Amino acid sequence: MFDLSPRGQQQPADGRPQATAVAREIVSYPGGYSPGTIIVSTNERRLYYVLGNNQAIRYGVGVGRPGFEWTGTRVVSSKREWPDWTPPAQMLRRRPDLPRHMQGGLANPLGARAMYLGGSLYRIHGSNEPETIGQAVSSGCIRMTNEDVVDLYERVHVGARVIVNR
């Protein structure tokens, strides 16, 4: 179990578990990808972290809602623990009610960890809404439960290849 409390903050008083729609597990994954590669299947709403020997760790994820889907290959360009969040301009145009900046913490939509994908606005990140895992609700980011994103974060290195497909 990981400590998911940012420094100086408490867990939610309601004790909400960070339940995942899909239990994290090691699965058979043939495909010839190098160990450390991340494959996201948006149709399955699953992320696979390739271990090698035809195995991967499978995680449940939330993906981009209709109109915000994307596919392609990126690399993890940086990683952050309890990242701050600044909504991009196009998101603020759609949602002017959003804060202009939010410190990292339990209420932050990026959750416990974030892995930034190249020079894009996309990230693999935790969530303050674990009930959305397994759904297509994001603006294109790949969201995970905080427990799962911490597990993945500890395994992934900057420079890791991320392949997003349908």
From TrEMBL:
One of its GO terms (cellular component) is extracellular region. GO terms for biological process: cell wall organization; peptidoglycan-protein cross-linking; regulation of cell shape. The active site is at residues 125, 141. Belongs to the YkuD family. Residues 36-165 form the L,D-TPase catalytic domain. Gene3D superfamilies: L,D-transpeptidase catalytic domain-like. This is L,D-transpeptidase. One of its GO terms (molecular function) is peptidoglycan L,D-transpeptidase activity. PROSITE patterns: LD_TPASE. Keywords: Cell shape, Cell wall biogenesis/degradation, Glycosyltransferase, Hydrolase, Peptidoglycan synthesis, Transferase. Pathway: Cell wall biogenesis; peptidoglycan biosynthesis.
